[in-house]
Amino acid sequence: MGGKIDLKPTDDRSHPEYRRDPLTGQIVIIARQRAHRPMSRFPSDDEDLPSGDCPFCEGRETMTPPEVFAIRPEGGARDSVGWQVRVVPNKYPALMVGAGETPSWSEHSGHLGDLLQDDALPGVGHHEVVIECPDHASSYHRHGDAQAGAVFLAYRERLRCFARKEGIASAIVFKNSGRSAGASQPHAHSQIIAMPLVPPILEREWRGCDDYWRENGRHYFANLLDAERSHGERIVEATDDFVAWCPYASRFPYELCVCPREEQARYDEASDHQVEALGALMRRLMLAMDNALGSVAFNYFLHTASLDSPNVDGVPAGFRWHLEITPRLEGLAGFEIGSGMYINPVPPDMAARDWRRYMPAADGATS
Ligand SMILES: [Zn+2]
Ligand SMILES: [Zn+2]
């Protein structure tokens, strides 16, 4: 890895290209000859949203496990109506809350029979649902900035809570919107999984930043934002607090990354002002995505530095927390699953141009 992040654009507008992410080494194929006609609209896969007996709707608080956090601007009792955002344990959790020591993998004996018997750890962790608004067929970006800010405040408060829990090494906040992005409930929600382990992608990012610092004496994210801003074409928005851009080695068409302008590794250390400003920016980005791509399925996820775990060697140098937004215009196919590489038909320079065109003004308007 050289001292300067090399994000050179290709001159040839038709030839496919392998690109490698400078931080994670993730390889993608930018296959512009396969490009969709830019900005074709895709039908939502959640076009009808019957509320039926949706457990996330206001008034059905008893249908979820008791809440662990909520924002009620007018006050009110736990698990009552009147909330803006509500966080509850997942009723069907991937992991279970456990007590006792932090599990860690043992050294392999090399005997395959042992591996198949013993290479397992108790599935302890926390799995929570952040219900993003009380009404069924809506989402925070259809409300105002205050609603969006409340969602990003809820993320921070839950991460602060997990940071105080012994044995939790990492947490991922993520959103699945639309069935093809993995959502099982149409009511707008996101999720948080907090674990005693560090997931491989996060570890690669943390270690990549540390390595970059050791080899070059420079902070990776600071250097990356400098490189992206001097290239310019992939920047979607730069506010006083954040930069949003389409990554050089985007895995998905219209993939986006949002990162704070100040050095900040942990999202749980974000200020009230940053949380509000992030909500306002994300609301506009979600509106732009609606305007540009229709109600497309998408994921986003938050990568943040360690939560004070004995498993983790302090905060990685030059790492900044960031949100990665991945519209899901196409499902993951055999090549992606089989190779760990991605084929992306929309070059990020082109994607950023489209994002900019559809970005609403920062004036509080809702569309
Ligand atoms: Zn609902
Ligand atoms: Zn990341």
From TrEMBL:
It is an enzyme of class 2 (transferase). Its EC number is 2.7.7.12. Binds 1 zinc ion per subunit. It comes from the Bacteria. Residues 1-24 are annotated as: Disordered. Residues 1-22 have a biased composition (Basic and acidic residues). Its cofactor is Zn(2+). This is Galactose-1-phosphate uridylyltransferase. The gene is galT.
